[in-house]
UniProtKB/TrEMBL annotation, chains A, B:
Entry keyword set: DNA-binding, Transcription, Transcription regulation
Organism: Kribbella hippodromi
SMART domains referenced in this protein's UniProt entry, alphabetically: HTH_LACI
Signal peptide (UniProt feature, chain positions): none
Lineage per the UniProt record: Bacteria, Bacillati, Actinomycetota, Actinomycetes, Propionibacteriales
Keyword Aminoacyl-tRNA synthetase: no
Protein's UniProt name: LacI family DNA-binding transcriptional regulator
InterPro entries: HTH_LacI (IPR000843), LacI/GalR-like_sensor (IPR046335), Lambda_DNA-bd_dom_sf (IPR010982), Peripla_BP_I (IPR028082)
Residue ranges occupied by any HTH lacI-type domain in the UniProt entry: 10-64
GO function terms (MF aspect): DNA binding
Transmembrane segments: none
Length: 344, 344
DNA sequence: ATCCAAACTGTAAGCGCTTCCACTCCGACC
DNA sequence: GGTCGGAGTGGAAGCGCTTACAGTTTGGAT
């Protein structure tokens, strides 16, 4: 504890007594508000140092009626994306004096309760994707909690930030069709998240524009495990074997490619494969994985900023940001681009 | 705001008034403490629901003199490890009713200040690796903040949790030497982190035990960029070219392998390469990357538990945990194990 | 009928901080 | 020499909650 490893932590009263000043002045010095003499400033600084004074944020929050903290609710933390997202978020928050309290709902026995508790200790909350069900989100709204949604279908009264999906997916699919592929399949369950449904929508639209029948999606979870099992099925489908697989994420695509490599199916000659996310492995496998890169850090940064605008009230109209994605062409899609896997 | 989107959020007074009871009873119902009649419980629950009441945690923290929150200080969030670490941490914390406030120091203009602020809003802090300099850590200690260090050299009075490094590195190095390698190099700067220095120590010890001269480390940062430049140097070293590279992490190793692949150097025939961390890409490259897996989630879990023990005071003696790592043999080390890159 | 304990409920005192307001200086200006 | 204004300071209220303590009921047992 402050003031030596014994006794309870020093409070502002201790500092005031030690500096022979009132707590009001101590507060003014420490917060840099109001007029204070140089002498007072110095005395307070020294007293605070000597007592190892750390202001109790809870008391300040109570007094100023603000937590200066954001809540961030994520479904999960596996994979590299969330790290980048969090990074971008934390960065912005840190630069603007906001703390970040995170909560992961996947595996949480009572997300609703957890999130309501969170709501009590922050000024606003950012929710990613399907981390929370809509009733819970509505509950937060009714409780008056400023809310920003990331990669989530729009909810009235909430801001949202997401990366563009449909059009990149369409562009990617069109490219494959342009290069003579005629039996593409979409791998991944559109119902698993809003993002994935948009990717499938783009995939579908590319087909519709050419008046092709839209293939039904292969509804599987977005895991390596699922990738392997899909690969097996593809292998066994003698007739009507697809000549291209548009995967909802890189994990699926990588697992597929690895499986094919071990079973004599050539990528991209026999079948083309694309992913989504541009994980590190995507540029190290051979052939390099064609994929779509999302600006995760930027997504986090923008979300933080939007929430702050809401919290401070500088903006009240809802706002929906859509960030551009980037198509990363490598060899797995067989469309003639080869960058030798040496790009960063 | 609660009680309709107008007006300020409902307080415990509003709930009490609405339920025609005292705030004391409301508190007792909501916290489940003390005796309350079924009637009162019901009235309070309903009132709280109707008013969308969310208890203000700052007020509770102030009253109970505890935040029920942990601080987590990380140097960075890039790479998959931190995600897993955070996951393990958050999981444990969530299950034990603790919130997690995270702070990233890399790129932070004033980590000390940020961390002191953090100290004011949590019950204890976990610091990873070199996220903080020792003076700052001492400062926290003097302020009486319970502290747990992850992957950090021991500091008196603090608990620590790390994964075993030296012995795995020694084992790995010995294995390479056993298979006839005679000119190994260690890639990565031992000064960059405690973990890396231990890995180098193990590498060195393996040499010493055979009375071989210990090669100086190739002091480079642990990045893909550095991996490429090291690869170039290796390529140019006509005489005295190393026949094996023990890398401090997978990023370095992967970049090296990719570069070699593009320049006609065969791995593992001409040169063997090993990494550290077992990132996803490690099992998708060809040859598969031999590496060492750390139990990141477990590291997080244990750290959370240790901190909680400290905060609640159930343990006061310092404790240092060392978690086992796992050597993952694949083809890049050329020691005859091949698992076809199909393991998960 | 009376009394007692147990069950429940309310009053009020904090928790540590910010900030409004009042007050005291003190130098500058008429 | 008196007045005014601003700089500096302190007193005290209040933020929303918990909880010790005291008070009120209730339902048996006597």
């Amino acid at each position: 504890m402050a003031s030596g490893p014994t006794g309870r932590p020093a409070t502002i009263y201790d500092v005031a007594a030690h500096a022979k000043l009132s707590i009001a002045t101590v507060s003014r010095v420490l917060q840099g508000t109001g007029p204070v003499s140089a002498k007072a400033r110095e005395r307070v600084d020294q007293a605070a140092r000597e007592l190892n004074y750390v202001p109790l944020r809870a008391a300040r929050s109570l007094a100023v009626q603000r937590h200066e903290a954001h809540g961030l609710v994520l479904p999960d933390l596996a994979g590299p994306f969330y790290g980048d997202l969090l990074m971008g978020y934390e960065r912005w928050a840190g630069e603007h004096g906001q703390s970040v309290v995170i909560t992961v709902t996947h595996g949480n026995p009572d997300p609703r309760r957890t999130v309501m508790d969170l709501a009590g200790r922050v000024d606003g909350i950012v929710v990613h994707g399907n981390a929370l069900d809509v009733p819970t989100i509505q509950g937060l709204r009714k409780a008056g909690v400023p809310l920003v949604l990331i990669a989530h279908p729009p909810v009235t009264g909430c801001d949202s930030v997401r990366s563009e999906s449909a059009s990149s997916a369409e562009q990617l699919t069109t490219r494959l069709l342009d290069h003579g592929r005629e039996n593409l399949q979409f791998v991944g369950d559109p119902a698993s998240s809003h993002d994935v449904s948009e990717r499938y929508a783009g995939f579908a639209k590319a087909h519709e524009l050419r008046e092709l029948q839209v293939p039904k999606p292969v509804r599987v979870p977005l895991t390596e495990e699922a990738g392997r099992s899909v690969a097996e099925k593809v292998l066994q489908a003698m007739n009507d074997r697809p000549d291209g697989l548009v995967c909802a994420n890189d994990e699926l695509a990588l697992a597929l490619i690895a499986f094919f490599a071990g079973h004599g199916i050539r990528v991209p000659e026999d079948i083309v494969v694309t992913g989504w996310d541009d994980v590190m492995a995507a540029r190290y496998v051979s052939p390099g994985l064609t994929t779509v890169r999302q600006p995760m850090a930027e997504l986090g940064r923008v979300a933080a900023e939007r929430l702050h605008e809401r919290v401070t009230g500088v903006r009240t109209r809802a706002r929906n940001d859509v960030l551009a994605t980037q198509l990363v062409l490598r060899d797995s899609c067989g469309t003639g681009i080869s960058n030798r896997g040496m790009e960063r």
